[in-house]
Amino acid sequence: GPAESRQSYLNWQKILDVFKASNSEAIHPGYGFLSENYKFVEKLERENISFIGPNSKAMAMMGDKIASKQIAAEAGVKSIPGYKGEISSDQQAIQIGAELGYPVIIKASAGGGGKGMRICWSEKELLENIKIAKSEAESSFGDSRVLIEKYLINPRHIEFQLIGDQFGNVVYLPERECSIQRRSQKVMEESPSPHLSQELREKMGKQAVLLAKAVGYYSAGTCEFLVDGEDFYFLEMNTRLQV
Fold first, then answer.
1. 3-state helix, strand, coil in the chain (%, to 5)
2. Among 21, 92, 137, 167, whose CB has the most other CB atoms within 10 angstroms?
3. CA distance 10 to 180
4. Set 136, 159, 224, 236: catalytic member
5. Which of 218, 223, 214 is nearest to 242 (CA)?
6. Hey, which residues does 226 pair with through a beta bridge?
């Protein structure tokens, strides 16, 4: 299709047409675009098409940053301070920014990879960036919702690989140290992280598994945390294969 993603990579019908024409047995999600779109997976489930990944319910709950933070709170997993809901107005954003204290970060609820993400050091920057973040989220993920969190200035970014089966078993695998980044994109990863004690590693891994089990997650997934000293905070879950 044309270069615009809505007419190509996000075009469900075109993908299904190719699926049927090629007599395929399953659809592999790839790494972006529809790989974490639960509505697409719901459609496949309705048509009895196998999706190589988690089911739509788990994807909807954990692939959405707003919903996943609400689930984390219910499961007793600590998240970064922030407003665990959709930002619906400039006035609401101003109030949240004042309550959290600057700097804050705007994030696209449906996305990742640095898309729809903006760091704001003042109320002026917050108001300037929220419209940009919403627009970028809409064009990248077809979902303009954003949330606001406290921005941690110099944390370590650690993520745990998870793998689960369809019988309720979930395990965590060695973590990845992902702190070397440019524009919120990981440049290199190291496993295991040289900065985690075995005690902290086990605590974080168990929290990642707890979250996955809370939503009946299976297939591969990644639970991301920010670590500040011995404190750690759930960041988000990637409901797909890691790139």
1. 40, 25, 35
2. 137
3. 30
4. 236
5. 223
6. 157, 233
123 catalytic per annotation: no
- Amino acid identity of residue 48, one-letter, is N
**Closest by alpha carbon to 130, among 102, 163, 107?**
107
Per-residue pLDDT reduced to its tens digit, 101-135: 999 999 888 776 678 889 999 999 999 999 899 88
Q: Find out whether 103 and 151 touch, Cβ atoms under 8 Å.
A: yes
Helices vs. strands in the chain: H and E counts, helices first: 7, 12
Burial tier of 126 (Cβ tally within 10 Å: 0-12, 13-18, 19+):
buried
201 by DSSP, 3-state: which? Answer: helix
d(CA 228, CA 243): 25
Distance CA 138, CA 154 (A): 29
Among 160, 135, 169, 127, residue whose Cα is nearest residue 238: 160
In residues, how long is the chain?
A: 243
169 vs 163: CA distance, rounded Å: 8
First-to-last alpha carbon distance for the chain, in angstroms, is: 24
In angstroms, the CA 63 to CA 137 distance is 14
Cα 128 to Cα 85, 93, 120, distances in angstroms: 20, 11, 9
pLDDT in tens, 4-42: 888 888 899 999 999 999 999 999 988 778 888 899 999
Which two structure tokens, joined as six digits, stand for 233? Answer: 């905070």
Predicted local distance difference test score (pLDDT) of residue 88:
84
Task: Say if residues 108 and 145 touch (Cβ distance below 8 Å).
Answer: yes
Structure tokens at 188: 């290199």
